[in-house]
Amino acid sequence: MAEKNQNQYHPPESNGYHRSDQESVPTMEDEEAKRKKRMKWTIGIIAFVIFQVVQALFFVLVIMKFKSPKFRVAEFDVQTLTTGTQASPSFNLSFVAPIRVKNTNWGPFKYDASTVDFTYEGVQVGQAIIPKSKANFKSTKKINVNVTLSSVNLPSDVNSTLGSDLSAGVINLSSQGELRGKVTVMFMFKKRKTSLMNCTMAINTSTKAVQSLSCQ
Length: 216
Ligand SMILES: *[C@@H]1O[C@H](CO)[C@@H](O)[C@H](O)[C@H]1NC(C)=O
Ligand SMILES: *[C@@H]1O[C@H](CO)[C@@H](O)[C@H](O)[C@H]1NC(C)=O
Ligand SMILES: *[C@@H]1O[C@H](CO)[C@@H](O)[C@H](O)[C@H]1NC(C)=O
Ligand SMILES: *[C@@H]1O[C@H](CO)[C@@H](O)[C@H](O)[C@H]1NC(C)=O
Ligand SMILES: *[C@@H]1O[C@H](CO)[C@@H](O)[C@H](O)[C@H]1NC(C)=O
Ligand SMILES: *[C@@H]1O[C@H](CO)[C@@H](O)[C@H](O)[C@H]1NC(C)=O
What we know:
Bound molecules: 2-acetamido-2-deoxy-beta-D-glucopyranose
Number of domains: 2
Strand content: 35-45%
Shape: rod-shaped
Number of helices: 4
Order of helices and strands: HHHEEEEEEEEHEEE
Largest sheet: 7 strands, antiparallel
Structural class: alpha+beta
């Protein structure tokens, strides 16, 4: 009875002591397991912090890099070309101008209506109208505009240059334009961007083909 009473009276302490004494080996295993668990947590936290830092760097260095979209004229086919003579130099030229707005940003570029001016020797010979629109996230907006260029408005001092160009069989043209808009990244970060077009092209009057086209 006394023993039983003692046993009944002491269980928490004796059991506690007995366990720690008897299960000294399992306890070391417990410690080992705890240590491993702590290690896992530490590695997990470090990995998480590294992930966060990499994510933040990616965000700042890649996504938040606002770049001006590229604004240019792509290669095209001349539809009609009529030229005057060297004595009476003139030209009429029509084609579908493939205007391209290449947006490499991580968000859309919304731009205002604009124009592209085609010039010969710095004098405007035609114009393409660019309606207000947008170039989507990492994509190229394609705008095809019918353009007619004519030398009717060229001043007389450009006449002789055109005459020699026509006898050489090539007409050099330029196209300039400015596209003003706003890039929006992640639906909230906005930045104004302006894209400039500055292209030159040479048109072969005998083949009626665009011989060279380059944009800055
Ligand atoms: C170009 O077009 C204008 C007006 O349409 C015309 O008067 C002129 O004769 C044309 N020139 C040529 C070379 O076709
Ligand atoms: C451009 O010209 C072609 C014919 O050359 C015509 O079919 C087309 O509808 C025109 N496009 C525009 C936008 O005027
Ligand atoms: C260009 O020269 C031709 C021939 O000399 C002349 O007939 C024509 O009127 C001139 N054009 C201009 C715009 O002066
Ligand atoms: C125009 O193109 C033809 C055929 O490719 C070529 O023989 C000629 O040299 C070109 N003209 C000029 C001015 O480059
Ligand atoms: C036209 O452009 C070509 C190159 O594209 C160049 O070699 C040539 O000198 C230019 N001609 C004129 C009259 O500017
Ligand atoms: C366009 O590019 C030409 C060279 O091809 C350069 O001489 C000219 O200054 C440029 N114009 C603008 C407005 O940037």
